[in-house]
């Protein structure tokens, strides 16, 4: 009996018709915390498979797994991420879940990231993208230097969930400055609801209307996120809502399929 059958029974669990495959147009979830026991996301391979099954029901077929790299909190490296990805991939091969995964990371802008840039040890997505984030508490003074330094290595920075940085909510021009610096922007799908609060929702919808987002991710950590995401997909016409933005998720499909992650030493 395969792992998939052990976890979910002889047949796939019932899926609410209101959410089934509604996110298939995105094709790739490029920001999530599905790698097991490596950060504050999934804590086991079994949990990872359950979460991936739920996301697969929503329409995702490919996943770029992006665990945190955060000095002193989640001190991950290419090697630790590769190990977790290997464990997940091994169990996926024993399951009936038809998905593809690659590993990268979500890099916190801190002193650890400075070292990684200096040594060219970033965990890079297929296509040469590098996902970065800041603290929710305070803006990083190193943001624009980090964007520049990543570009000097030949990579393309993506700022994760800019709508969640409350210190920009009353300084909307900062989002334009970040874009003008050549940094792409990634929306958390849950932000279009009130999951993170009303101000985050307002910021997200304003940025969507302005066509500012380049990528969309789930930022999924656990079952609560999955349940909330299913509610969002049932309630909101996500595809129509995002039609104002040049969303690039689908462009990652060929990068993953053709193994063009030569930027990345992660297995």
From TrEMBL:
Record-level Gene Ontology MF annotations: manganese ion binding; protein tyrosine phosphatase activity
Record's catalysed reaction(s): O-phospho-L-tyrosyl-[protein] + H2O = L-tyrosyl-[protein] + phosphate
Keyword Hydrolase annotated: yes
E.C. number(s) listed in UniProt: 3.1.3.48
One Pfam assignment: CpsB_CapC
SUPFAM superfamilies the UniProt entry points to: PHP domain-like
Keywords annotated in UniProt: Hydrolase
Enzyme category, top tier: hydrolase
Listed InterPro entries: Caps_polysacc_synth_CpsB/CapC, Pol/histidinol_Pase-like
PANTHER family: TYROSINE-PROTEIN PHOSPHATASE YWQE
Family: Belongs to the metallo-dependent hydrolases superfamily. CpsB/CapC family.
Name listed for the protein in its UniProt record: protein-tyrosine-phosphatase
